[in-house]
Amino acid sequence: MNPFSYARPTETGTAIKTQAKESQAFFLAGGTNLIDLMKMGVVNPSTLIDINRLPLKGIEPHAGGLRLGALATNSEVADHPAVLKDYPLLSLAFNAGASPQLRNMATVGGNLMQRTRCSYFFDLTMPCNKREPGSGCGAIDGINRMHALFGASDKCIAVNPSDMSVALAALDATVRVRGGAGERAIPFHEFHRLPGDQPELDNTLRKGELITAVDLPPAVFTKNVYYLKVRDRTSYAFALVSVAAALDLDAAGRIRDVRLAMGGVAHKPWRLYKAEDFLKHKAATAENFRAAAAIAMEGAKAYRYNQFKLRLAPNTILEALTKAAGTNTPS
Ligand code: SF4
User: Fold this and answer.
1) Is the pTM of this model over 0.90?
2) For residue 224, with 0-12 CB atoms within 10 Å meaning exposed, 13-18 middle and 19 or more buried, which class applies?
3) 42 lines ligand 1 (CB under 6 A)
4) Which of 37, 124, 156 to probe ligand 1 with, by most ligand atoms within 8 A of CB?
């Protein structure tokens, strides 16, 4: 590991100013991703700004919804009574991720910032446009079974690894950030980006900006929700495909509103807007769920080793919707 400076500010403004001064100054929260990347030499910070003393841990009601402080841990959010009661989809997604030990350390802000788990990104001997822009993409003609079906480019076909972010995309959350120019709110679907010609950029944060909170809108999807994660082993593994499904059903079982998002298939959490539009005001039947899954797969493009996802993804959508229409809520 390269030598680096370490700062531990107690004021948010100081942390932001310190980060803005150096191109390779990184914020450190739980460290569950960043420290691994440093050990492997994938990132080499000049300064680590430990933000754990900043007052960003609260989980509080806000504007009819809930505000999650950026430093709240994944476990704290997953087990919070207001999340279990009003946002059970988020709790399910958190508990599908990583391991209990990691969830006790990882934070909301850090989860948003975690990097792809493409193996070529971690392998310094291989080309990777995300790690080293212009070097090429080892995955496009390599072992790409974990890679994207949607929104990829000829520069990068990596996927976002976060389970939390799939649920937050479905719930239409907002990311609050603060920088030298003040505060701004980023709609969740605009926070992560597709690779395009700049796969080194995972998101739309500007230099010197710090995530301070994630806002959840007033709760609608409190009952008929499910987060289904398909992976190579049943714990401590990233998704091959995951689906966040939330239904608002009327007394007759018709769909008043629906949210669907997929993980493991794109460089950002992949919201299934066309499938949602198809399902609205229809009956919650297997036939309609199957048709929605087919709509969701329009435009999918597989690579040599991830062809299986073309069947796995619609089957996962169908299963998640079926479970959501039942009574599967976290206890
Ligand atoms: Fe790098 Fe993206 Fe290609 Fe993976 S898919 S090797 S992260 S450029």
Assistant:
1) yes
2) buried
3) no
4) 156
